[in-house]
Amino acid sequence: MQIRDAQENDLAGILDIYNDAVLNSTAIWNNNPVDLANRRAWLEERQRQGNPVLVAIDDGGQVAGYASYGPWRPHEGYRHTVEHSVYVCDSQRGVGIGRSLMLELLGRARAANLHVMVGAIESENRASIHMHQQLGFFHAGHLRQVGFKFGRWLDLTFMQLILNPERSTP
Ligand SMILES: CC(C)(COP(=O)(O)OP(=O)(O)OC[C@H]1O[C@@H](n2cnc3c(N)ncnc32)[C@H](O)[C@@H]1OP(=O)(O)O)[C@@H](O)C(=O)NCCC(=O)NCCS
Prior knowledge:
The protein is an alpha+beta fold. 31% of the residues lie in helices and 33% in strands. The model has no long low-confidence stretch (mean pLDDT 97).
């Protein structure tokens, strides 16, 4: 397993994982699959912003998962905070890939001198909430019924990690 920055030829693998989450989970609150151009535009925007998109490549050379962060909110005062996402392909969950992606992503965020990372997680997503707790994230809020998918309301749990708690200024 190798973790590295995503390249153009990883987009098909990223697309498969993303669309599987759209169609079969409440991890993403979209109803419709997207196409390769959509993921290419996303990758290019992240690269333009200087934000990482990481992929985990399995021994067969396939994309087993990906993780990234981008701006949390647009206003200038939030510029030291990012919101991340992490996805592992259905057949390779539970063997440490999500955690490995997150550890590398946290390293990148610290190297970029960011201060806070925020995760917005569907409240019944036990795997994600547990993984984030194990990584030191703490529960920062619970919004009831702010989403709707598969015929039911969804709650949103915010988790956050202060990346450089010793810093009083950036
Ligand atoms: C959430 C997700 C990224 C975790 O990645 P993963 O590679 O399966 O997780 P890991 O194998 O690295 O495990 C990390 C921790 O979570 C735990 N975990 C993994 N799957 C779990 C599950 N289904 N239920 C409870 N805990 C689980 C592991 O035991 C491990 O904890 P430990 O260190 O105490 O042993 C992955 O399950 C996934 O892609 N899910 C669908 C998309 C998603 O929900 N993304 C997050 C959106 S916020």
